[in-house]
Structures are given as structure tokens and as C-alpha cells.
Design brief:
Blueprint: E1 2-6, E2 15-19, E3 38-40, H1 42-50, H2 54-59, E4 62-64, E5 66-70, E6 76-80, E7 88-91, H3 93-105, E8 110-113, E9 117-121, E10 127-131, E11 137-141, E12 144-147, H4 154-160, E13 166-171, E14 174-181, E15 194-199, E16 204-209, E17 215-222, H5 223-228, H6 232-242, H7 247-250, H8 252-258, E18 268-273, E19 276-277, E20 281-283, H9 286-289, H10 298-315, H11 320-350, H12 356-371, H13 379-384, H14 390-425, H15 434-448
Parallel strand pairs: 2-8, 5-15, 12-20
Antiparallel strand pairs: 1-2, 1-12, 3-7, 4-7, 5-6, 9-10, 10-11, 13-18, 14-17, 15-16, 16-17, 19-20
Helix pairs in contact: 1-10, 6-8, 10-11, 11-14
Length: about 450
């Protein structure tokens, strides 16, 4: 998606032109593009609230209060996202885009143009050249270009030609594949108000609920593991080994066919800096900071870009020469931080949630947050249920983690010293301690080992 803002920003003669490379998705029979469900949380909701759309979009989403962990033995264990009443929303990507386009059309100073593929643009003049599907070309001039055209941004290519522009992209060695879990007797096949996770240490499957009572299941796995499975029977053998409880819910025949509809799709993380060229152009959303989907913050971070940009516009009186550099200064460290957090959260979702130590630490963090809500705030709460700047959330999390770990270590040391003192004062019969000691050791080993 590409936005162009023309002369008169902030006044009654302001005009905004939105140009999209594809046709109007509201008219298309099949919406093209990625379909991983979106997880809407506080940052995204705040942006929607500012344009009067929060209530409508929330009403079209499904609340998810917790992760539901599916163990190999079929046991299901919920891990709440936050305090009672806190939840994220499963939102359909295509429907959200349609609603945003319809809302944009209600503004008299906004024009929507589809079927415009950007060929080239010049920062010095704001002249943009587009190709149309009929083979014709069209040129448009703009005072400010806002590039929101995704991870493979055509706008960003012009940035790469300029000096002192930093850019990096990282493809992770894991891909994703989507499967559908249909309703059973017209109802959800699983409990709907959860983000279901089947963590298997080096890979995982998740499932998010949809309004039509289906679940969108997404298998995240190394590409070489995808490549090993070449027949329908191998698909069933693989699911029988790692996701046995999902087979009857998705269906044997569906698994055998759907697995081969598309190969595993790639995921890329992109960082760049700065986000602007003088007062002529600024990048937002995936064009500035594409992230892997494991923290559910890609859309929320993109929506928050709009909030931050608007806040800086107000602070600096719509002076683009001051606004754009300040936007880059403020936003780059936060977007880089959420990109790193998204990478980390994949490890947490596929492996750490299997650890009893991880579950124990979650309980400790939540308990301390209950006791000291302003002093100890879980990382997930800061990222998902507040507008704490991403990089400051990371800094605070690292500090809290260090303090809590030292506290637990000190507590354990004090307990050992206390027990040692009591043993010295009152020596027990050693023969009676051997069996309890072995039992305690076995429990300690189990606590520190991943669950299977």
C-alpha cells in the first residue's frame, strides 16, 4: 500500500491519495496475499480508536485470553496472557483491509486508486511513475510520499541508492504452512478463546479462531523438515508423531491434500535507518520494519507508526523538515527492538513453554506484578497491553529479570544455609535422608527439563 499526501496538510485543502498495486480487494473474488491471522492488541486498538474504528473491528474479532499448550500426550494447559480481562483479538486480515478502505473512502479529501504499480520515483521532485494493467503509464506529483508498501517496498529501493542508509534483511531458516480446522457440528472444534500452540522445541503449530467457527492452523518448521515429507502417508505419520490430537480435528484427507497445496512460505525480518528522505518521503509499517509474526506485533507496530507520526506532527506544528527526522530518531530504536523480540518469541513459543522453569517464572512474574504493579511488569504486558516504547520495555525486562533471578538465588541460598544450620544443630539419621534426597533430586531434574 502506498500513501501520497499532497500540499495543504492540516488545512481544509489537504488531499490524500492512496495508490495500491493490486485491484480493489473488496471487488475481488479471491483476496491475494498472506493470510496468517492478525493478533490485534492495545497499540493497534489505540490507532483504530483515533479514526473511530476500534469498536467495529473489535466486534469482528475473537478474544484470546491465554495460550493453550497442547502436549504430546494430549494434555492441554492454559497460560494466561495477562491479568483477568486482558486479551488479544484474532482478526481476519482481508476483512480488516476491506474495512479500512471503506473508512478511507468516507473522507472527502481522500482518493483511492487501485491497479497502480510503482515503477520509479524521484525524491527531489516528488514525481512518481506508475504502470497500469492495460500497459499505460501514469505520473503523479506529491509533496510528501508515505511509503507503506510492505516488506519488499518499491519506495525503499530509492533509499538504497542514497548514502548513509542502513539496511539489513534476515530470512529465518523456518517456513510456515497454513491448514484449516473445520467446525464440528457447526461449532468450534476446540475452545475458541485461546491461541492454541503445539510446541515441539524445534518447530510448532498454532491455531487461531475465525468467526466462521474454523481455526487457521499454521505450521512453523525448518524448510528441510518440510522437504522430508513427500507423500500423504508421510504427512499423517508426521502428525501422528507430533500432533496426534490435531488429526481428527483437521481430518486425514484434508491433511493429505492441504499440506501439498503450497510449499512452506518464507519469513523475513527487515531493519533499516533512517525512515525518511529530507521532507519528501517517509517509510512506515513493513516497508520500514518487517518482522516475523511470533510476537503478534507486526500490524500493531505499523498502526502505532501512524500514532507516533501524528503526535510528532502536533508537537512540531506540521513542519515536515523537522517532523520526518524526529520520527526516524524516535521510531527506529523501537522498531528494531520489536524485530528482535519477535525472533526471541519464536523460541519461547516453540520451546520455552515446555519448560517447568519457564512456567514457574511466569507465575513468579505475575505474582510480583500483582504485589508491585508499578515496579514489576511482565515483558508481554508491556509489549501487548501498553504503549511502553518497545526498546524501553526490553531494557526494563532485562533489569527485572536480573533482579528477580538474583532474588530467587538469594532465597535459595538462604534456605540452604538455614537447612544446613538446622542439620548441624540437630543431626538426623543419614539412612533416613537418602530416599527423600533422591526424590528431591529427581523433581529438580524434572523441573529444569522440557516437557514432552
Amino acid at each position: 500500500m502506498l500513501h501520497i499526501m499532497c500540499r495543504g496538510w492540516g488545512g481544509c485543502d489537504a488531499s490524500v491519495t492512496l495508490l495500491w498495486m493490486v485491484t480493489d480487494i473488496r471487488q475481488a473474488k479471491v483476496a491475494k496475499g498472506r493470510s496468517i491471522n492478525l493478533a490485534l492488541s492495545h497499540r493497534g486498538r489505540q490507532a483504530l480508536k483515533q479514526v473511530g474504528m476500534e469498536d467495529k473491528i473489535v466486534s469482528q474479532g475473537i478474544p484470546m485470553n491465554s495460550r493453550m499448550i497442547h502436549s504430546l500426550n494430549g494434555k492441554q494447559s492454559p497460560i494466561p496472557y495477562g491479568k483477568k480481562g486482558q486479551f488479544i483479538l484474532s482478526v481476519d486480515r482481508a476483512n480488516l483491509n476491506k474495512e479500512l478502505l471503506t473508512k478511507a473512502e468516507t473522507y472527502p479529501n481522500t482518493k483511492l486508486n487501485f491497479d497502480h504499480k510503482l515503477l520509479d520515483w524521484r525524491a527531489e521532485t516528488g514525481l512518481m511513475t506508475f504502470a497500469r494493467s492495460d500497459g499505460s503509464k501514469e505520473q503523479i506529483n506529491a509533496d510528501l510520499i508515505v511509503g507503506c508498501d510492505g516488506a519488499f517496498s518499491a519506495i525503499r529501493k530509492q533509499f538504497l541508492r542514497r548514502s548513509r542508509f542502513d539496511y539489513s534483511q534476515t530470512y529465518i531458516p523456518h517456513g510456515y504452512m497454513e491448514l484449516t480446522m473445520p467446525p464440528i457440528d457447526g461449532e468450534f472444534a476446540m475452545k475458541p478463546n485461546y491461541l492454541h500452540i503445539w510446541p515441539r522445541n524445534t518447530f510448532m503449530m498454532i491455531a487461531l479462531p475465525n468467526l466462521d467457527k474454523t481455526f487457521t492452523c499454521t505450521l512453523f518448521m525448518p524448510f528441510d523438515e518440510f522437504d522430508k515429507i513427500t507423500t500423504g502417508d508421510e504427512v499423517i505419520d508426521f502428525f501422528q508423531k507430533y500432533f496426534p490430537d490435531a488429526i481428527p480435528l483437521i481430518g486425514v484427507d484434508a491433511l493429505k491434500t492441504d499440506y501439498f497445496r503450497l510449499p512452506g512460505q518464507a519469513m523475513v525480518s527487515i531493519k533499516c535507518s533512517p525512515y525518511h528522505i529530507e521532507d519528501k518521503c517517509v517509510l512506515m509499517g513493513d516497508a520500514a520494519h518487517a518482522v516475523v509474526p511470533f510476537y503478534g506485533q507486526g500490524m500493531n507496530a505499523g498502526f502505532e507508526d501512524c500514532i507516533v507520526f501524528g503526535e510528532i506532527l502536533d508537537q512540531l506544528n506540521n513542519d515536515f523538515r523537522a517532523v520526518l527526522p524526529e520520527y526516524s530518531r524516535v521510531r527506529v530504536p523501537d522498531d528494531h527492538a520489536i524485530a528482535d523480540l519477535a525472533m526471541y518469541n519464536y523460541i519461547e513459543m516453540r520451546a520455552h513453554v515446555n519448560s517447568k522453569w519457564f512456567i514457574f517464572r511466569k507465575h513468579v512474574d505475575n505474582f510480583l506484578h500483582l504485589l508491585m504493579p508499578k515496579t514489576i511488569v511482565p515483558l508481554y504486558t508491556m509489549v501487548t497491553f501498553s504503549r511502553t516504547r518497545y526498546h524501553k520495555a526490553v531494557d526494563r525486562w532485562l533489569w527485572q529479570d536480573k533482579v528477580i533471578n538474583r532474588g530467587l538465588l538469594s532465597g535459595a541460598a538462604a534456605a540452604v544455609l538455614g537447612a544446613s544450620y538446622l542439620l548441624i544443630k540437630n543431626p538426623p539419621d543419614i539412612s533416613k535422608l537418602i530416599s527423600p534426597a533422591e526424590t528431591m533430586w529427581d523433581r529438580l531434574v524434572a523441573l529444569c527439563s522440557p516437557r514432552h
